[in-house]
Amino acid sequence: MQGGGPAFQESFSSSNLPYHHIPKDLSCLVLFEPLAPNYNKQPIRVGTDGGNKFWAPPNQKNAYIRDRTRARLFRWEGGRMSDITATDLGKKQGLSLHSVATIFTQWQDTPHLLAVNFDAETRDVAEEYGGWKVLSFDHIPQYGTPRTYYSSVGVAGAEQQLAAPGSPAWMPQLLPEIYNYDSRQSAVQPISAGLIGNLPILFALPAFSAQPDSLSSILVSKMRPNLWVHHCRDHGHIKERGMVVSVYLDPANKKGSTAALLDKLQQGGFGAFYGP
């Protein structure tokens, strides 16, 4: 673990600047658990939109199969991931949960990702949330920079598309093209400050960028502080693929892994999670 008392405090001293970077001492644990529909518990669900039919995930909490044998636990520290499944997965009981989301791809019916801000095995989506939500965005102005906006991703955003054109480094690899900024919206094109928002979703996006067997190698090699490194592997938008992504405080980093710091990270307080 990097840092220490005074050095750690100094690394956060730039929080009042208009742009700053993810501190090396900021960390959390991230758990990925594959989730699949159990059609023995709930029949396959099919929705319609404009006459088009599309698959929808179950909306009952008992209608899933969670493959815990393929769960992977990572430490995210200073913008980089390390796979700690072998040493720490058995110790996850008692960890302090910061946030969790369940995410499914609708490939091949639509390019959308569907999500809810909880573990779908703990609550009925139909009763508790009114149904699965497509990803959406809030457009957050970057302080001190005219016409420059963060796109804050979540499931209750005010907009259906990014605030500005997505970076070719992560669009459409992390976000399907359907979410990109529509250049017809304005004669004066806004400038992207990057992607921020819901942490479990921000971690899920690269997980869906590659096949399940490549999860560890992709996350470890392609996530960097404030940016995403593009890869050339096959995408992971596989039919009916889902996962629960849980973000925990890092018990080995009491000072640099707090709910307040992770909230600040989500809100862009350390710059973009995935930069422009």
Q: In oligomeric terms, what are we looking at? A: single chain
Alpha carbon gyration radius: 19 Å
Shape: globular
How many distinct beta strands? 15
Textual characterization of the structure:
- Helices cover 14% and strands 29% of the residues.
- The protein has 276 residues and is of the alpha+beta class.
- The chain starts with a helix and ends in a 10-residue tail after the last helix.
What key attributes describe this structure?
single chain; 276 residues; alpha+beta; 8-stranded antiparallel sheet; 3-stranded mixed sheet; 6 helices; globular
Which helices and strands appear, and what pairs or packs with what?
Blueprint (H helix, E strand, L loop, with lengths): L4 H7 L15 E11 L7 E5 L2 E5 L7 E3 L5 E6 L2 E4 L1 H4 L8 E9 L7 E4 L8 H4 L4 E2 L1 E6 L6 E7 L36 E7 L1 H9 L7 H8 E2 L2 E2 L13 E7 L10 H8 L10
